[in-house]
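Hey team,

Filing this mostly as a record. A colleague (T.K.) asked me to run one chain through the structure pipeline before their review meeting, and I want the input and output archived in the tracker in case anyone asks later how it was produced. No errors, nothing strange. Just documentation.

Input sequence:
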Amino acid sequence: MAARTKKAAMLMTILLVMLTAACSSNNNAPGNKTTSEPQNTASGGSEATPAAKPVEITWWNFPNFQALDGEVGKYEKEMIAAFNQKHPEIKVNLEMITFDGGPEKLNVAIASNSAPDVIYDAPGRVIDWGKKGLLAPLDDMIPQDVRSDIPDAFWKQSMVGDKTVMYPINTAPFMMAVNKTVFEKIGALDLLPLDRKDRVWSFDEYKAALQAVKEKAPDVIPSVFFAKSQAGDQGTRAYIANLGLSSFLKDDLSAIAINTDQAGAALDWIAQAQKDKLVISGSAALAASDVNDLFLQGKVAFSINYSAVLKAQNSTLKKAEFEEALLPFPTLDGSAPKLEPYLGGMAIFNNGDDAKIAAAKTFIDFVANDEVYGKKNLIQTGGLSVRNSVTGLYDDEEYAYSELARQFITAPPTIADGYAEIRTYWFPALQSVLLGQQTGKEALDSFAKSADEAIAKAKAQLK
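Output structure:
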């Protein structure tokens, strides 16, 4: 009897062990989730689900976000720390680059196969890299609700063929800025179109404003121009195109359109305006950053290369107390202007490592869409959201105007085939006029010839 009882007890024990094993196996079956923490197996404990494999990526960033406490890159480090709270397995190495030296540094890195994994930049460079096959497609990280919430105009600037190579995040129309305080001091605020909802104004009205500054504020330079380097080329393009009622490119982006008589006359006026002290002298040797610094010092009344994004980024860089206002470029006859959009977004260089590409996508998704940092990042750029559903981020009159001015946005030339080469011909053409070597029309015709050849060559290479 005792033997029979002992045998029954043994059978019960075996059954309990089998049931426990079955339950354990079922809990780890596909489709079931576990909330238990991975256990340390170094001392011979039971095997557990392995933690995500650590990945290290490098992010190169222009100063796209406002400096925090006056320190460039401090905000980005804060963002990375917040990202690591959610993704401790992904290490992000940040390297800040400048708008002056950054483009060349990127070119060298690409040529030496040492490009960063992630870049926050604009279509001018990103699309060119995409056309050269240097970037990883991002389509698998863009759900349909996001794609339909962003206007087609922004997707056109973010895609090469049917592949998305840049994740669009922030935008703002490029336009002018005026030192409003200068006009208040000289009692000429009425010369600015600030009382008009759309702020649209004419070339004659603009010239009257410049003349008032020259006569009543002799220590202030009325306006600026620059032609030393490629940076800021969108400001000079739109300035001349609007003063001359022209477009930089044809609507289908197949050829240059700015070489008109009126645009040539506008360029001639700029050269003469230097001599008349309405535009800064020596502009052929000045870069966009040079004249921007003068504006921030309060020494210039008008900047021709501005946006809501730059307004925010410059807020901590001002060296003088003044209030600026955003204005569209004046047009020859006071008609609606054509503004190029600033578009900022993130791209991934395909460095041949799938794990890094996947990690970079996770990081981009956090920057753009995190429930806390998505909005916070937008505001820190000073830009507007590319999404139709995200508006009213700022309680500020100039940002409200910037949103209104989106109605004037036209397709930018940055998506044209051969754009990277086109822009290399632009500033030499401007310099030739500023230095008295060619008329405006001659320079624009010469530019158009070289640029059209670049477009044709690029199209042929893409076939």
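Quick notes for T.K.: Confidence is low (pLDDT under 50) at residues 1-50. DSSP finds 17 helices and eleven strands in the chain.
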